Amino acid sequence: MFKTKLTAERLRDYLMSLFLILSCICLICVMIGFFRMFFPYVNATEWDLLAFIGSVIAAVVTVMGIRVPILSQRREQIKLKYESILKQLILASKSTRMILGAPNYKFYDDNGDIDLSLTLEFQAKYIHDYIEEVSKFRVNLIESMDLVRFEHMEAELRSFARFQFLYENLDVYIKVEKISDLFVLSIREYLDRAIALENFFIEYQNEILQKYKQLIDEPSRGLFKL
What we know:
Layout lengths: L7 H31 L9 H49 L19 H22 L9 H12 L2 H8 L1 H5 L6 H37 L9
Helix pairs in contact: 1-2, 2-3, 2-7, 3-7
């Protein structure tokens, strides 16, 4: 279990809750004063004033009784949502994290020079496999990921459309006497895009994990806030 810390944000929430409670008490006192001012003939011994105070207190208790379960239910729903996202990202990362190391893998010929054909073929296969894996698990993120991030992910995946053509014709590009510099730059560009997309998933996972920890650290933030 994560340790609870009295952060500045949490202290501010406590002070805000205390301020609102004191404001409600002051408002009740003012209402009682106005009630006595406009209805001076009311006799407290006849329980009219006590009945009024009791009705106000009952209304406050009713609001609290409704709001607290609603907030608790919403917190539980958010917690389950975060858990679902984290599980999906963690499972997917087992096969997608490898793209981060793809630029470091190089093949050499008998003379000790980089074998450009094998290296490009290896990197292209890594990119292709990465796109396939992301395309599979993206379906599971439709319901849980927010719209802005989901659209960013979709835009990045759409940017690999031309790569599919390059990959399908890979033999044409690499099995030649001199590999085109444009093809080399294209593979490197798509590899950089794949790495950037994976870093996007890492940042998103860390952000969701931080929010999930905050829910665990602060199981109840009061009546007025989640």
